[in-house]
Amino acid sequence: MQAIRLFHFLMSRFVGLTMRKKFRVAVEGQTTDRRAISRQDIMDMAKNYNQQTYGARVWLEHFRGLFPDSAFKAYGDVISCTAEEIKDGDLKGKMALFAEIDASNDLVAMAKAKQKVYFSVEIQPDFPAVGGSYLVGLAVTDSPASLGTEYITFSQTAKNSPLAARKQKPENLISTSEEVWEFSEDPITSNEPSLFNKILAKLRPKEEKVQANFSDIEKCFEEVTKYCTNLKATVDNLGKQLTKIETELAAEKQASANFRTKIDGQPPANYTQRPPATGGNGQQQTDC
């Protein structure tokens, strides 16, 4: 039982470190190809995003690698999106898109090394399944100037954008980079358990249930012990009675045998002694 409790404690400390965090990933305004992300786009993405409908992944510089061991592999997933109006600063009053990111270990390590510290979103207008703007991809980048000012300067249309080859569709928008981000090992604040917690919950026994089971088993053993003790006393008593009966039966058998021997040695009740015969030896006996 102590081992189970220690295991639960260690695992709870382990799973208490989260790789999920909420970040501001886009703000209504101009994109890298001189098109604007509208307030409605932000609202649509927050309302429409559903990981079950289409899950947006986190990529490096919007490149989608073909191989899982590539530097351009996926670095995490977008779990959910929300829209909030910025309350202060230069962007006060603008609508911002916040995304909850489930990061891979590689992305966390990258952030700790202060590499690729800005977000950039890829938006698909009129997404077929929802009929509005949809977040189809998220990238991390280390070059906010090139994704913002320089690309705007040298690329006037989406067709000529240096990022055009990295989009899923030519009409998709790629935003300027948004705020520095980093992952910290904060305790999980989301009410929904992580996938690891869900799996662990199915694999590990519930301590309360185990304790209840042990309590029930202990009660069963107590009942069995009590029953066996009473049964032993009953059997011992029956053994004594059987010994007494056997002794009495043996005495009865002996008495019966003695009586039979005595009976067999006596003449019948109607038996009459025959008088002695005369002349048995040639002489006549006389009664003197």
Lay out the secondary structure.
Blueprint: H1 2-15, E1 20-27, E2 29-30, E3 36-37, H2 39-48, E4 58-60, E5 76-85, E6 95-103, H3 105-112, E7 118-127, E8 132-141, H4 144-154, E9 173-174, E10 178-180, H5 195-203, H6 207-264
Parallel strand pairs: 4-8
Antiparallel strand pairs: 1-6, 2-3, 5-6, 7-8, 7-9, 7-10
Characterization of this structure:
This is Capsid scaffolding serine peptidase GPO. Residues 258-288 are annotated as: Disordered. The protein is of the alpha+beta class and 288 residues long. It has helices spanning 2-15, 39-48, 105-112, 144-154, 195-203, 207-264; strands at residues 20-27, 29-30, 36-37, 58-60, 76-85, 95-103, 118-127, 132-141, 173-174, 178-180. Strands 4, 7, 8, 9 and 10 form a five-stranded mixed beta sheet that branches. Strands 1-6-5 form a three-stranded antiparallel beta sheet. The chain has a two-stranded antiparallel sheet with strand order 2-3. It is rod-shaped, with a radius of gyration of 50 Å. The protein starts with a helix and ends in a 24-residue tail after the last helix.
